[in-house]
Fold this sequence. Notes:
The complex is a heterotrimer.
Chain A lengths: L14 H11 L1 H23 L37 H36 L3 H15 L2 H12 L3 H28 L2 H8 L4 H37 L11 H9 L7 H33 L1
Chain B lengths: L4 H23 L6 H5 E6 L14 H11 L4 E3 L6 E3 L2 E6 L5 E6 L19 H12 L14 H5 L2 H4 E8 L2 E6 L6 H5 L9 H10 L4 H4 L7 E7 L3 E6 L12 E6 L3 H10 L4 E2 L7 H6 L3 E7 L2 E7 L9 H10 L2 H9 L3 E3 L22 H10 L6 E7 L10 H14 L2 E6 L3 H10 L4 E7 L6 H8 L2 H5 L9 H12 L3 H18 L2 E14 L2 E2 L15 E2 L1
Helix pairs in contact in B: 12-14, 17-19, 19-20
Chain C lengths: L1 H28 L4 H6 L6 H11 L5 H14 L12 H36 L4 H15 L2 H15 L22 H7 L5 H39 L2 H8 L4 H14 L3 H22 L4 H10 L3 H29 L12
Amino acid sequence: MLKTSLYQEEAPPSPLQQTWLEFSKSHAAFFGLLCMCFFVLVISFGPLITPYSPLEQNTDALLVPPAWTASGGIDYMLGTDALGRDIMSRVVYGTRVTLGISLFLVIVSMIIGILIGAFAGMMRGLQSSILNHLLDSLMAIPTLLIAIIIVAILGPGLINSMWAITLALVPQFIHYTRDAVRSELRKPYAVAAKLDGASKAHMFRSTIFPNIIEMLVVRGTQALSTAILDISALGFLNLGVQAPGTELGAMLSEGLDISYIAPWSIAAPGGAIFLMILSINLVGDGLRSALHNRFLH
Amino acid sequence: MPKVESLNITIRPLLTALISSFLLFACGETNPINTEKTGLIYCSEGNPSTFNPQLATSGTTADASSYQIYDRLLEFDPETNKIVPGLASHWQVSKDGLTYTFTLRKEVHFHSTQFFKPTREFNADDVIFSMDRWRNWDHPYHDVSGGNYPYFASLELDNLIDAIYRVDSHKIKITLSKPDSSFLANLATDFAIVLSAEYGDFLLNKGTPELIDEHPIGTGPFQFIHHQKDRYIRYKKNANYWRDIPLVDQLIFDITPLSSLRLAKLMTGECDVLSLPAHSELEIIRERENLILDEKPGLNVGFWAFNTSRAPFDNIEVRKALAMAIDKSALVEAVYFGSAVKANGIVPPSSWAHQSDLQGTSYNPILAKELLKKNGIEDGFTLDIWAMPVERTYNPNAVMMAGLMQGFLKDVGVNVNIVSFEWNSFRRRLAEGNYDSILIGWSADNGDPDNFYRPLLSCPSIDSGTNRAKWCSPQFDELINEALTYSDERTRVALYQSANAIIADQIPLVPIAHAYRYQAYRSNVNDLVINPFGGIRFGGVYKQ
Amino acid sequence: MITYILRRLNLLLLTLLILALASYWLVHAFPGDPVANLSGVSFITAEQKAYLDQYYHTDKSFLNQFIRYLELLWLGDWGKSFVSGQPLVDEIATFLPASIELGTYALILSLLFGIPLGFWAGIKHGKVSDYSILSFSLLGYSVPVFWLALLLILFFSLQLGWLPISGRISLLYDIPQETGFIVYDILASNIENKYEALVNAASHMLLPTISISIVTSTIIMKMTRHSVIEVLSSDYIRAAYAKGLTSRQVLLKHGLRNALLPIVPQVAMQFTTLLTNAMIVETIFSWPGVGNWLIQAIYQEDYPAIRAGMLAVSVLVVVFTVFIDLTHKVFDPKRMHHRRVKN
């Protein structure tokens, strides 16, 4: 066999490669991706890098400021809170909880939403028109408001707030999937498949789904940043994870009590939420414009 | 659903609001003038449960009513702690200590408000009405608003007073069943306020007697206007006050339960005075140039009481072992940030009856563990510690203290379950008595040491609810009763020291700390002094 | 056109009915006696129970009960709060205007910032100023409102001491409540120092308004920019340039109007986001709005209040959405499918 090709082959990059090429052109998106990788590392290896347990109290070191201030120490990089707990360890664990739960919720709502959306998209008739309008009304209401209302009904607590956010996210995915399926169905390749006599289920699986999955991933990143915001907002309002639990929003609301004497206790968890959402938005935006440019070429 | 017209009502004001707010932003520069100087805002920590301090022992209630709305027959001088004239201009005590004669002040007016216009001045009937309300079980007002008078009941004042006579319109005579050297001091406390008898009759005729405690009428420097629960209490100055007329037109209690928010409001000037600054925040207040922090050793004690009516806490050795298992010095350091002294007994150093050579239990976890074993308490025993959800002077953070004690007790093999509810339901459940132990405390209402011994540990105070240990020792009661019959301080101190020995031996409670009292305010507030006993006073305060 | 409006209104009625049904279902779903949850009377004697059963038709069939519930909703008897004992309609009439007021000011502020900046970025598409505005918008879009509010408090109130942090107006001003919109109430009141009170109210309003409007400004900025870029690359703009008009003329005569019109409904839709964010920020600034009230009700398990609050907020949002949608359709019937912007 020849190791090198004799002919000057045109090797067009695969769609995925194209997207990556477009994506990596944008520095901001690339930076966002790095940040996101960092957070993924943090949530996977968090317990290995934290010096303390997030609940361990040290009464000899209450309200220690961060290491770089005059009265701070290297023992506690980001300082300690009013009970002498290490803020860095708490932020790492909090990130695990916040990001971990959000990821889980987005994946679950994506699966449910895509299934229902696909079903609705392939279907026609009156039911789908009513569904259409109800979804439209639901889409107009911010997910956080829906989540607050659902938590109001179910009562505060982590599990309840997870239900609330899932229920708030699912309609979005139903909506996007259904719209995408509709517009794909009108395209010639779908019509061709249909004329070939493909069943609806088969058509969705092998023809339509591969063409809309990228768009859905972009929607997924948006939903992820929404989910993080929502779960931390519920935590902040003491409606989600309850106080001693390490969730970034709940930590913020705990830090509220001492924010005037120990600003670092709200700066660190808030900053973590901010960076997480920022990186996800950067990646999402980058991905979207990469896809957009790919279709343009 | 809102009716159709409501749309109109909503849109018009909104438009006006929008336009005017634009005008405002255009005008720019804010320059507060009048209103802010003539009004005083006090950030208080909670809602008073009533506006009649006779009905409650909580400091929040006393703050909102005692010195603002009412006056007492006698007062404590906040500087010297001596008893000085109040509504009684002078008084005499008979030689046997059984008869007290009070001459009342003339030309004292009750508040004239929208809901009540008094037709006469203050006189002897008002004093008799006020005392009969809690003293006389047949009094028409005795059962109004619950009919519980915890302070008077815990000190058994209703039994102490034999009779009250009206000598003339401005003179009364009170006879006691036995001599009591703390009687005058009790008349000067937050709770011994004077109500209007005329207002009482007026409300009785209207059929709404409970309003006497909700829309209060008194002779104090401020008159009550409105209380909106969880938000504010509004008072205005009593322009007919018999002492110096208050220098501010309005007094407002801004109800802010979160201590950090109170501090923030003080910093931004939304409050002029702050209640109960958190000990962790004192340093910030000291550092700020426009804030002033006053401090005074407080007459209080924070303690850990065992429910001695429950096994195994009815066993003295178990109580002793648990007391030895905790390191009090560490608690004082972490919870009070050093602004308290470690307590060995229940009477603080600022009282004349303080015993300085009293030895408290020492921290000895090894001995504690042995003692627990000996009494059949094995590893894994679980103990409930009830911790107050609110900060008090004597314990600024009971939940945190309980958390630390959890650590100490784990070392001797005892698991701790911390119990804490919202403050009102906490007190309600506390009254049901289903607790193992509790972190609570006591602030003195008058300068007399009896005010520590009797409410906290005497047998009758179990029923009135202030004896949290539910501990009863006839020998102890005898000692403190005897002490009251003497007016000589040296004799009393000797008796109290014997009482201390009983407490140290039986350990119904573990005294933890005597905290300093703090008061923080903005530097343009003048003439605000710490009242060593109980409620805050705004009478002579003014703003620059 | 008419059919569309009728269809939409029909659907609105249907949605409202579903919301009412959901809230009536809550009466039964919440713990405790349904009659207590309906009336807000927590301890019911047997005598009261009989009366209330008759009043709420709880002794009759479900359909009958529900119709009675709708009737009472319409008549304004929403029950009482467990905690305060006040009629819920009165409570909502007190708290909802405060939230709407906050949301409205924030929307105005967002428009004042978002549209000019977005326009500028659109014109300078691909230049440095476009990128800096864009990155700023990304930052603003990612910041959690509650954290932003805390940072603003730390800096402007506690560090600099410029602005107050709680409530709508200093308690020293005793403003009688008429409509619940503080600025209107001040003007309508007969207090002596109106101007002073207005300034005080404005200073209380500033921080909460800014903290919720930053996110919305960035969204509006993005929309404006996108729309401007689209319009500027369209044929009629090129035609206008070809006519020899200056860029100034082109922008003012053709660009501005055509770029702004299509985004008006989307911008209006941001009000629901603002209202949600207002509800969160209210808890930080002790703003006496419906969010603060609803969250307190959740903590205190005040079921009648949760039910009524949920109903009021969702009805407001749904009616508002349909209203915007319809007005848009009436003014711009061509664009039957307008784009939607996330959240």
